[in-house]
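Hi L., both proteins are below.
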Amino acid sequence: MKKLVSLLLGATLMVGVLAACGSTPSSAPAGSTASAKTSTPASGDKVTVRMTYWNSEETMADLLAYLETAVPDVKVEYQFIDNTNYATIVDTQLAAGEGPDIIVEAANSALKHARLGYLEDVTVLSEKFSDAGNAIFTYEGSVYALPGVSWFEGIWYNKDLFTENNIELPKTFDEYIAVCKKFEGIGIKPLAAGLKSWEPMLKNSMAFVTAEYLTAPEGKGFGEKYRNGETALNGTWNTYIEKWSEMITEGVYTQDMTGIDHEQAMEEFTSGKAAMFCSGPWDLEAILAKNPDLNLDMMPFYGTQPSDGWMIGGPGGGFAVNANSKEKEAAMKVLEAIATPEAQKALVANNEGGSSYLVGLDTGLPQYYNGVETTIKAGNIFCPWDEWGAAGGAHQDYGVEFQKYLMGEQDIATTLANVDVVVEELLAK
């Protein structure tokens, strides 16, 4: 779909890699490395651990170089495999008590492998990362993978249009709607959106629910309950979606936008006909190619209360340790090194436009992201459907149902209930 998404996410933000390396499970408790089975290298030799990932080695080059010096007694053997084969091969190897020592896991596979006892508990190390990054790798209260570099989507905006018209940046959802009305009042389209696709309303509405509910005390844990069949969208999200639907009732999203695609919306934005455009780093090059003089920045999505804001996105993968690894202690040392600012900066360096979930880390994004610097530092990048486990693919159905809602074909309850049915069916398989 887009350059960064294909790099980080694969089909649903998930893929993987593998290599053989395993034995019998250790008797050590989950998360412990003290009694892990580790072969003792001869003097001067290194212990070799295998790390598998769906991203090419060039996207990991700086991190691998850093690990050579940070963990000098461990050699990280990097293995890539195309995402089309990842799930089948890794599942097969782990089921046989084998597989790589370090596995880069997608959200759904991490949950499955944690449930089956294939992964080490890395909760202690995960405390260095934000809740938003850890959430999708959490199973029954424990974390089983450290979040890697993220993808994210915010709201690109034309700084000159804001300045020239004396319009201040919003800090809440209500202020955002007011900003849209001001632009509309002076004949400038507030938000360019290609609603021919199911994606824009999916991400925009979920960003609001994230800020308003999913990251609030009452909403934390919703994703785990949802994938366990203990709750539903309909009956839980209705109030929040009703508030968000001001995007429709106030004319920010309009029915005619269902005839506009992503490229057409981008053209409206880059030509100055629209003040804002929702997208991510994958579109930066194309935006600047269309208008090199565009004074561009990004803002996050907001809920009704002032905050650092939120962006839709998530880890492209998480670093996990195979519970059956013969080199578990060495593998955990590598993860400890990965959970450092130096390693995270190295990882981001080869993944332009990505960001780290390490709390408080400034990875030095380009000037075009000044408006979301605080958001990224806070780790406020979250993808709700990543918590849906095997039903994560239903996010597309969610987007389609919201297209129907926009067109007036159904109400909010029906829209959410239809998604619940799809999720229930996927989880039952």
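That was the first. Here is the second:
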Amino acid sequence: MIRNTLYPIAMIVALAAMLGLSGSGYSQIESERGISPINSSGDFEVSGIKVNITGTSAEEARRKGWQLAQRRGWAELWRSTNRNGAAPALSDSRLNNIVSGVVIEQEQIGPRRYVATLGILFDRARTGQILGIRGVRLRSAPMLVIPVFISGGSEQVFESRTPWQRAWANFRTADSSIDYVRPSGAGSESLLLTAGQTGRRDRNWWRLILDNFGAADVLVPIVRLQRQYPNGPVRGYFTAMFGPDRKKLGSFELTAANGEALDEMLVSGVERMDAIYREALARGALRPDTSLIIDDGTDEEELEEEVLEEEIETDDGDDLSGSGGDDAPAAPVQPSVNSFSVQYATPDVAAVSSAEGSVRGISGVASASTSSLALGGTSVMNVAFSGSADQLKAALESRGWQVQQSGNVLRISRGGGQ
């Protein structure tokens, strides 16, 4: 049985039409409500690196600042992994090979000076070889995260951009044993994932949602804010829920001195929530509910027998190909899949999602993923494409991109150089 992953969305659209909510539903889908999660790969991250450096030009000062940040980030990463002594000296070219991205936290660029606070992302596989850290880690089954934010008696998830969702979107999941599936809340997700849905126990509906997001179960981190008085302390009550039955795994309280400290409190709340979920995983309390598994009716024994029969038929076909192959239809020639590097500007996280989605929509693109992320700068996307570089360039231009090509490296930009 073929799964229809678009079925939940189709049901929502049909329900909106039946209830006469086409106008409001369309408005909610089209408005900007979600926050895309940042890089959730297994990279090592060193943040808060301050640089203040000069150069003969703004471009040179920035390049030197990034190189200095990479050296300081490497030294800090070495210390943070409990290594004795100073970090081994690595050349700038070697650092470029193990650094997967640069995150610009703050930046000021002058004619000949560069002042910034940067974060450096180190590729786990390449850096782990130098650090002697194994790349394989035990992780949970994929868990869909629905962060519920309660303030002033109103429960929200993706209906608006809440600071609680932003804290989860900015959480680095690389070192967590929980495999978080974090929706952005864009498009129809704001209709599908609501606070009301977290209280629904109907397994059929949950199966469709989880299958749509490729998750095995659901985590519901809840925060309820209580303000003492305007511009005064803000108390947060945090509760970690798990599964459609809302099993409580733990709770705690945190207090922010005022509204300006709210974001910092919520970031700490996400880290505490992650600790609760990791502890639950360690003691076996985070096992996916078997009633949420969609049974496609496939019998494993029958599947193995079919595979064996296909192998036997293939062997027989090889024996007969020499005698009666003239009348057999020729197999279609499949175009070879080639790898290309696509450079593009990434002023923010939304630009990453937009560019990747545009490239993935091109016919013949097997995969497109950002391998080197530089928020505020130029990132690099690895693209697997069935065709030549010229064909990929033409396809990109047909989607409104301006393309500069040099061999298998393409640089794309929108009108005006954006």
